[in-house]
Design goal:
437 residues, alpha/beta, Fumarate Reductase Iron-sulfur Protein, Chain B, domain 2, Rossmann fold, 4-stranded parallel β-sheet, 25 helices, 7% strand, globular, binds iron/sulfur cluster
Length: 437
């Protein structure tokens, strides 16, 4: 695509990067076929190509974002399906991340939007505040029928629907040594996952120990920054990235790390991008690159080191590929290969490339589109009649889990169970068919 950025505009490295992304687009439109919002809404401006035109015009002319541009960029899930489809290698993620930051800086949103966005940014990345909010959710839930009458409360209702009815014990946070150590790995502690489903991390720690690796949790590490990054709050995202780079660098330099393991693929995509996010920071660029190079989705790591001996359960599993894993990190085969090795019958739903509508805070801020995508995803999965649904991302697990009676677990819980771990807490009713019967 031809561009006409002024030299003064290109003096900004972020503009330079976006211009080079835009130039790669050849307008072919292949990406429209796999874009969830175009599939649902049929509007070119809700397709990757349409959004690229909107972003080009806004950035190239340094325009104040219009309500129309913001609407169509906000509707983008950042699912990155378009990046998988694009034959020209357009790095849509870097472009839309920049556009979101530009909008945040140059556009004043209506009061209600500002309120919800500020609320989410101040609660979700902080595990203690998030847990408190989840504990308060049952108090507000009885008012849902009344709140439903008012459009302004849609995001609040979406939050209440996502909040689990009961909270499990906290996820492990202390170092866990293997019996015969092959090396040391750090696990991202994260923010939302340990509050919602602490059993995911517990299973990952047990299994990684069983593979022969010591697990540590780096002091000072916290939310990866993805949630605020996707809201365009760049300073907050970079602050989170620097804090984590510092925490893991201390561990790399004092004992070494074989990998930094992430059990939530949405976070993994952002951590693998730390090198890019901090590329212009002379103090952090090299350290961020090193951290990004060590980052592994838990399924990637297990696929590299190999599973311990398995005792097959014989259960059928519908594998849901999170967008951040399949499109963001291009980890497509490892989770299915591991589940098959562990003795599960792995089934793949139709339209596996389409997002389930979770997408960070999308199912709260764009709940109407998210609901349609969620229902469509669950209908495709339920057609498989599998006994269990496996996913590698907490957002997908919550989005799918609230729409189906089939239990949703993390892939690593199934792998842990099949290699000697306990029955996942949500699968006790299936245990008679499993190895712990
Ligand atoms: S990231 Fe997903 S929703 Fe956004 S334009 Fe690409 S395919 Fe469409
Ligand atoms: S597939 Fe790639 S090159 Fe073609 S329109 Fe979409 S982004 Fe542009």
């Amino acid at each position: 695509m031809q561009t006409n950025f002024a030299p003064e505009t290109l003096a900004d490295p972020a503009m330079q990067s976006s211009e080079s992304v835009i130039r790669k687009c050849v307008h072919c439109g292949f990406c429209t076929a796999t874009c969830p919002t175009y599939t649902l809404l049929g509007d070119e401006l809700d397709s990757p190509r349409g959004r690229i035109y909107l972003m080009k015009d806004m950035l190239e002319n340094e325009r104040v974002p219009t309500e129309k541009v913001v609407k169509h960029i906000d509707r983008c899930l950042s699912c990155l399906s378009c990046m998988t489809t694009c034959p020209s290698g357009v790095h849509y993620m870097h472009l839309v991340d920049h556009a979101r930051a530009y909008i945040e800086e140059h556009y004043r949103r209506p009061l209600v939007q500002r309120f919800y966005r500020a609320l989410l940014a101040s609660i979700l990345p902080h595990p203690d505040r998030f847990r408190l909010a989840l504990r308060l959710a049952p108090l507000a839930r009885p008012f849902t029928p009344v709140l439903r009458q008012f459009r302004v409360f849609r995001p609040l209702i979406a939050m209440l629907n996502l909040a689990p009815r009961s909270l499990e014990a906290k996820a492990p946070t202390v170092a866990s040594p293997a019996s015969q150590s092959k090396g040391r790995v750090a696990i991202l502690q994260g923010c939302a996952e340990p509050a919602l489903r602490p059993e995911f991390r517990a299973a990952a720690v047990r299994l990684i120990n069983r593979c022969g690796y010591d697990v540590i949790f780096a002091a000072g590490e916290g939310c990866c920054g993805a949630l605020v990054h996707h809201m365009g709050r760049e300073e907050a995202a970079l602050e989170a990235a620097r804090r984590n780079v510092d925490a893991w660098t201390r561990e790399i330099e004092n004992g070494g790390l074989a990998a930094i393991i992430i059990t939530t693929s949405g976070c993994g995509t952002t951590i693998k991008d730390y090198g890019f996010m901090l590329r212009d920071d002379p103090v952090y660029a090299a350290k961020a690159d090193r951290v990004a190079t060590l980052a592994r989705d838990v399924s990637e790591f297990l696929d590299e080191v190999g599973l311990p001996a398995t005792r097959p359960t014989g259960l059928s599993v519908a594998y849901h590929a999170a967008c951040s894993l399949q499109h963001g990190q291009k980890v497509t085969d490892a989770p299915k290969r591991l589940l098959t090795q562990a003795g599960y019958a792995v089934l793949t739903p139709a339209e596996a490339h389409l997002c389930c509508g979770s997408a960070g805070t999308y199912n709260i801020l764009q709940s109407e589109i998210a609901d349609q995508l969620g229902d469509r995803k669950v209908a495709n999965i339920e057609r498989l009649e599998a006994q269990v649904i496996a996913a590698g991302n907490i957002g997908c697990a919550m989005q799918i889990g609230q729409r189906t009676h089939t239990p949703v677990v993390h892939t690593v819980e199934l792998l842990d169970w099949a290699t000697g771990g306990p029955v996942p807490p949500t699968l006790h009713h299936l245990a008679s068919k499993g190895t712990d019967a």
